[in-house]
Amino acid sequence: MADRILVTGGTGYIGGELVDQLLAMGKSVHTTVRDKARSEPRLRARWSEAGDRLRVFETDLMDDAGWAEANAGCDAVAHVASPFPLAAPRNKDEIVVPAREGTLRALRFAHQAGVTRFVQTSSAAAIAYGHPGKDHFDHTDWTNLEAGVPPYIESKTVAERAARDWVETHAPEMVFCSVNPVAVFGPVANDDLSTSIAMLKQMCDGSIPALPNMGISVTDIRDVVKTHVMALEAPADLVRGERFPTATKFMWMREMADVLRERAPELSSRVATRRMPDWMVKALAPFVPAMKQVRSELGNVRDVSGRHTEEVFGFRFIEPEQTLEDTLRSLAEQGLIKG
């Protein structure tokens, strides 16, 4: 089992929670950040007892500097870092190119350092798009880029495809697998919110005055991290080449709103009850960047199954209703939501 692990993107939601869990297990962790001077003090404050078991390295997905040092002495890599904008970029290459090149750079330097296991944080974005009329997906499905998909969806699909091709060609002995989360919710450690949780906060603080006709599949950060840890620790034959979606069930935004009001009424008085007509979403899309992504999801069902992951690793995911409640209560504990 790996004793020293590189987690790229330690300031992100998944990366930070994974670092937290690995340190709690007694592991030594290297992590990468884009700006060490700005990020390391915050990381040291969060893990004040870690000492030299935590090392922070400055890297960039598009530059070689720092990657060799970050990988030195590591047994395994969890490559979490990837661009994830709240709004769609003007040019898709702003996220597609860094996602692909960053993944290949992480793989190349890991291989050069003798790393034997590499877990890529991919996404359900690489599974569930580009198939009109198809509602249900699992670990065997791949997003169809020929159908035309949003830039973020393309970036995750391209990056995972590129990683698998690279390993097959250049490092067939490496134990490689991917974790493919859907929208990630759950407890938060600070006010640096992921895109998914920022959306839920906006639902609860009144920033979203009406609910569009869209939905998402829900997963819990604790299950995402647990899956990563198992992928890093499990026997090689159990994980080699695998894809591990983390997902419970698909929920419409109106269903999410109902859960929040039912389970935490004292914190959800500002959650919208009105529906946003599709025509309004389409009218706002040219002027409100976030609405461009909502527009493409109106009425779509993308129900991704995490059953394969549960069966391989032998545990059950947290129910989505519990996840949503825990997210809201955690936001309140951080002072980010008021009753």
Task: Give a verbal description of the structure.
- There is one protein chain.
- This protein has 339 residues and is an alpha/beta fold.
- The chain has a domain at 4-192 and 219-246 and 302-320: 3-Layer(aba) Sandwich (Rossmann fold).
- The chain is 42% helix and 15% strand.
- It has 13 helices and 12 strands.
- The strands form 3 sheets. The protein has a 7-stranded parallel beta sheet with strand order 3-2-1-4-5-7-10, sandwiched between helices. Strands 8-9-11 form a 3-stranded mixed beta sheet. Strands 6-12 form a two-stranded parallel ribbon.
- Helix 4 (93-112) links the parallel strand 4 (76-79) and strand 5.
- The protein is globular and about 55 Å long.
- The relative contact order is 0.13.
- The model has no long low-confidence stretch (mean pLDDT 92).
Would you spell out the secondary-structure blueprint of this structure?
Layout: E1 4-8, H1 13-24, E2 28-33, H2 36-46, E3 54-58, H3 67-71, E4 76-79, H4 93-112, E5 117-121, E6 136-137, H5 151-170, E7 175-181, E8 183-185, H6 195-204, E9 215-220, H7 221-233, H8 236-239, E10 243-246, E11 250-252, H9 253-263, H10 278-284, H11 289-297, E12 303-304, H12 307-313, H13 320-333
Parallel strand pairs: 1-2, 1-4, 2-3, 4-5, 5-7, 6-12, 7-10, 8-9
Antiparallel strand pairs: 9-11
Helix pairs in contact: 1-7, 4-5, 9-13, 10-11
Short summary of the structure?
This protein has 339 residues and is of the alpha/beta class.
Name a few traits of the molecule.
339 residues; Rossmann fold; 3-stranded mixed beta sheet
Largest sheet: 7 strands, parallel
Q: Please give the CATH class of the domain at 4-192 and 219-246 and 302-320.
A: Alpha Beta
- Overall outline: globular
Helix tally equals 13
Distance between termini?
A: 45 Å
The strand line-up of the biggest sheet is 3-2-1-4-5-7-10
Helix content: 40-55%
Mean pLDDT: 92
Q: Low-confidence runs (pLDDT<50, min 5 residues)?
A: none
Q: What is the CATH architecture term of the domain at 4-192 and 219-246 and 302-320? A: 3-Layer(aba) Sandwich
Per CATH, what is the topology of the domain at 4-192 and 219-246 and 302-320?
Rossmann fold
**Beta-strand level of the residues, as a percent range?**
15-25%
N-to-C SSE string, H for helix and E for strand:
EHEHEHEHEEHEEHEHHEEHHHEHH
Rg over CA atoms: 19 Å
- Content-based structural category: alpha/beta
CATH superfamily of the domain at 4-192 and 219-246 and 302-320: NAD(P)-binding Rossmann-like Domain
**How many strands in all?**
12
